[in-house]
Amino acid sequence: MSEPTTTVTLPVNVEQIAALLPHRYPFLLLDRVTALDPYKRISAIKNVTIGEPFFQGHFPSRPVMPGVLIIEAMAQSAGMLALLSNPPDSQRSTIFYLVKVDKARFNRIVVPGDQLCLEVEHRRAVRNMHQFWGQALVDGHLVAEAEMLCAGIAE
User: Fold this and answer.
1) Domain 12-154 maps to which CATH number in 3.40.50.300, 3.10.129.10, 3.20.20.70, 3.90.320.10?
2) 64: exposed, middle or buried (C-beta count within 10 Å: 0-12, 13-18, 19+)?
3) pLDDT for 41-67, tens place per residue?
4) For 111-139, what is each residue's pLDDT tens digit?
5) Is 17 helix (H, G, I), strand (E, B) or coil?
6) Active site residue ranges
């Protein structure tokens, strides 16, 4: 990520997110971007509802959001950080693929009615590879964290 000046009006809503990320329902896991420090960090939210399709089969008698989807939500936040940090004319030209997850920890379960607050920071970049650190919180309590490596591939 180079560092030209970029301007983003917050919050970024789900329609704006869908215009930048290739994901669609049921795999678009961000509802809003609430804070952005370009090239450094992003805050986003995912509202977890009982209507999520994964709850039908993931412990249906006690619905729990799968940990891998919490990591995916953090990775989508990382992608938004990278995309929103670039000038608007170049935001759609790169897709970020999650290529590695390290140091993943899950501290609490996430259930319907929770609001997942995603905090992701950019750690470093080498060519098209970007390292991020992410945390997911519910009501201020850490529920998951992970280090992620993403590859930015030009379309």
Assistant:
1) 3.10.129.10
2) middle
3) 999 999 999 999 999 998 889 999 999
4) 999 999 999 999 999 999 999 999 999 99
5) helix
6) 58
